[in-house]
Every structure is written in structure tokens, then in C-alpha cells.
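Task 17 of the worksheet. Students: predict the tertiary structure of the chain below and write it out as C-alpha cells. Keep your answer in the requested format; marks are given for formatting as well as content.
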Amino acid sequence: MSKLDLLKEYKSYYNAGKNPEIVEFDEANYLTIEGIGEPAGKMFVSKVEALYPLAYGIKKICKEQDKDFGVPKLEGLWWVEGDTPALEIPRSEWRWKLLIRMPEFITKELMFSVQPVVAKKKKNELVQKIALEKMTEGKCVQIMHIGPYSTEHKTINELMAFIDANGISVNGKHHEIYLSDPRKNKPDKMKTIIRYPVK
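Model answer:
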């Protein structure tokens, strides 16, 4: 039985260069859960701990149906209310939506059937708060950030300068794809794709 590898199936989606570049992406299917608060804070961690078990619960059912797939990388959309730059807003007020991409054949009906089972097994009612939704970012600008999350602002500034120089503007939320596991990688070796929809 073949296993769908989303990282290979959508190779361009999970790759970025060290220099800013313009890319384009079609509609994609995601498990999502929203929250507010600092990165890696209590709420953030608790919702990650709900998202992954559901993703693997869905994978288990699909494997039994000969439609196995690998659960891909965690992603996050980040924003703040109002026009004040995010770095000038307390981290406790940052808003986010966590994402894990799913194969196109995953349906809401399948997710709904798995949610109560996983919530009970993990004793985590946040699993029931997870949604399955489609998102189309279209034209984007992106760059690979290498290093700790605390130095991302330098990479973001480089990306914004590229956006200004090319006469385009941000048309969506700050998007990060976490290619490295902070528990297994040194901070200076961490890889994170930073992406913005543009127009």
C-alpha cells in the first residue's frame, strides 16, 4: 500500500529560498484551531496538543481504508487587532490560527466521526473545537528564516523591503510553516517558512 507524502506531493508549498520570492498556491485543506496569547504559551501548547492527536486519529482511519498519509508540518497564521504593528502589541494579545494540512479526500464527515473518539481518549475537549476548512492564499511572497523565532523580525523586514520594492502589498495574514522541531534542533539551525499573501 502506498502512503501519501504531502511534503513531496506539495514540494513547492513546503520549500522556500533564503531570499524573498514570489510564489502562488492553490486551494488547500486544513485542520484548524484558533487562539490568542503568546507563542508557546499555555493556550498555544494546549491547542497544539489537541490538533496533532486529531490529525493522527484521522490518519489511522484512512490507513485502515488503504488511504494512508503522513501528517505534515505545523503551520500558523498570526495577526493582531487594529493597525498597530504586532511587535508593539503585548504578546498576550497576539491572535493565531494553527493549521495542519490534510489530503483533499479528508471530509468534514470523517473529521466529525473521529473527533469525539480522540477527545475522549486524550481527555482533551479542545479536540472538539477543531475545524476542517479550505484556504486559498494565491499569490504570495515568502522566505526561509533560519535561526530562532526571536530573530524572525530581521527576516520579516527583509521580506517587507522586497514587497515595497516590487510595488505589491500584503493581502492576508502572516503565515509561518514550522519545518523544524524546537525539541530536536538547535535554535540557530531552526527552519521556518515566512509567507504573506500579496496583491
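Marker's comment: Residues 27-135 form a domain with the Multidrug-efflux Transporter 1 Regulator Bmrr; Chain A fold (CATH 3.20.80.10). The chain has a mean pLDDT of 96.
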